[in-house]
Amino acid sequence: MISPGVPPRLKPLSPRRSATFAALDVGTSKIACLIARLTPLGAVAPGDWRTHRVRVVGIGHQRSLGVKNGLVVDMDAADAAIRQTVDAAERMAGMQVERVIVTASGGRLSSQHFQAKRVIGGREVAEHDIHRVLEASAAHHLHRGRVAIHSLPTGFSLDGVSGIREPKDMIGEELAVDLHVATCDQAAARNLLVAVERSHLSVEAMAATPYVAGLSTLEPDEAEMGVMVVDMGAGSTSVAVFARGEMIHLDAVTLGGAHVTMDIARGLDARLSDAERLKTFHGSAIASTSDERETISFDHVGESDHKAHAPKSHLVRIIRPRIEETLEFLRDRLAKAGHPSGPGRRIVLTGGASQLTGVAEAARRILGGQVRVGRPIGIEGLPDSSKSPAFAAAAGLLVYPQVAAHEYFEPRRVERAATGTDGYISRVGRWLRESF
After folding, report:
1. How far out from the chain centre does Cα 299 lie?
2. Range list of H helices, 122-198
3. Among 112, 172, 213, 318, which is least packed, fewest CB within 10 Å?
């Protein structure tokens, strides 16, 4: 049964060990499962989080059922859809999986930031000093009803000098650390875990959708210089801000591609299936001179005897306000959190809704900066149909085990490792030794 506590934590993957992982992306419009074999790369460039070669050996995906805005709303339907998706991936891979890594796309993703200090007294910083200051930073309480899905130390400072990545053996009076904790609603996380476990699968870890989408679509230099990853799903649009190679902020709004489909259905009095087809094949977030001359056809709700017709410009006038509203909401929330967009900002769009014509141009106009559509990179074995922004999060779940050692977990929330040492000591020690 599911524990009422925090979501499970992923054990760090040794850079010298091969392993097989299964990724399960449970979204509002689709559920996707990828099974992949991870083999060590050997030499890895500094700052590169890809320590393993990822080869996909099985893939399954289908229309999502029982999920709305990233939240499980019908347990039986979600359970059945997950079973079918995983079964398709297992058949292709020729193997059975027992554990999966799952995306968290709903539950009001957000960030909390904590800081802690420790007096050093003018001596060299020892490893136990780093452990103690990290432990103190994680001792803060989360907002009521929230659970942590990521706990990322984003930087140390010594005597007020910030930007230190490895303080060990440095000399100073006071050591401080900044800890970024990504959270979601506890009820949303628990219901998702229950839906997966009802499919006779155990959850190895849960990861925020925009974070793992960034892991699969970004180059290390982009994450180092600073970039926003905007994942535009069907039920929500979420953003992860990267800087200095780490995720430093997370946020989401409950507006996505499904809302555009509903606007089209209501505006044209069309069936939902026709509205989705019109959005996919004819939809655009920007107007063009030919829109008035092009005609779209569809069935009115309850009428199938004859086709209705409308100019494409009418479709654009329905889509454009919703896309602009979503991006403006995101822009305002980012500015309020201290991450304003601007001409120098890099923005990467992922998710199925980012493939809509004109979305990149709208993002460039509203968010500013340099905008590109991100697709999974460095993932071998993906079919061409899956090398799209819609599969960025699923592919990123296969990269996530390679960066799990970067995270910090409170000692009381981590099971003892097989070696008999406390799990958090081995993980933080690994992070300190190998990450930088």
Report:
1. 36
2. 127-137, 186-197
3. 112
Taking 3-state DSSP, the helix, strand and coil percentages for the chain, each rounded to the nearest 5, stand at 35, 30, 35
315 pLDDT more than 80: yes
* CA atoms within a 13 Å half-sphere pointing along the CA-CB vector of 372: 10
Alpha carbons 260 and 431: distance in angstroms, whole number:
42
Give the alpha-carbon dihedral of 223, 249, 238, 83, to 10 degrees. 80
Residues 88, 94, 100, 104: is their CA dihedral positive or negative?
Answer: negative
User: How many Å apart are CA 127 and CA 317, to the nearest integer?
Assistant: 59
Reading the block at residue 134, the tokens are 């990290």
Please state, in angstroms and rounded to a whole number, the distance separating the CA atoms of residues 400 and 406: 10
Tens digits of residue pLDDT in 91-105: 999 999 999 999 999
| Structure tokens, 248 | 């430093």
Adjacent-strand bridge partners of 99: 202
Tens digits of residue pLDDT in 228-282: 999 999 999 999 999 999 999 999 999 999 999 999 999 999 999 999 999 999 9
Element (H, E) at 40: strand 30-40
Q: What backbone torsions phi and psi does residue 35 show, to the nearest 5 degrees?
A: -115, 130
Helices (H), 287-404: 312-336, 359-366, 392-399
Taken in order 398, 211, 322, 72, is the CA torsion positive or negative? Answer: positive
- Rounded Cα gap, residues 393 and 401, in angstroms: 13
Antiparallel, parallel or unpaired: β 246-253 and 295-298: unpaired
CA 412 distance to own-chain centroid: 26
d(CA 51, CA 38): 9
For β-strands 370-373 and 346-350, DSSP reports them as parallel
Closest CA to 29 of 105, 117, 112, 119: 105
* Upper half-sphere CA count for residue 22 (Cβ side, 13 Å): 27
Q: How far apart are CA 110 and CA 254, in angstroms?
A: 12
Cβ atoms within 10 Å, residue 44:
15
Q: Pairing state of beta strands 161-164 and 146-158?
A: antiparallel
Question: What is the amino acid identity at position 93?
Answer: A
How many CA atoms, within 13 angstroms, populate the side-chain half-sphere of residue 338? 4
pTM of the predicted model over 0.85: yes
**What's the whole-number mean pLDDT along residues 57-81?**
96
Q: Which of 159, 186, 188, 189 is nearest to 172 (CA)?
A: 159
Tokens 């003018």 — which residue? 122
- 3 state DSSP class of 21: strand
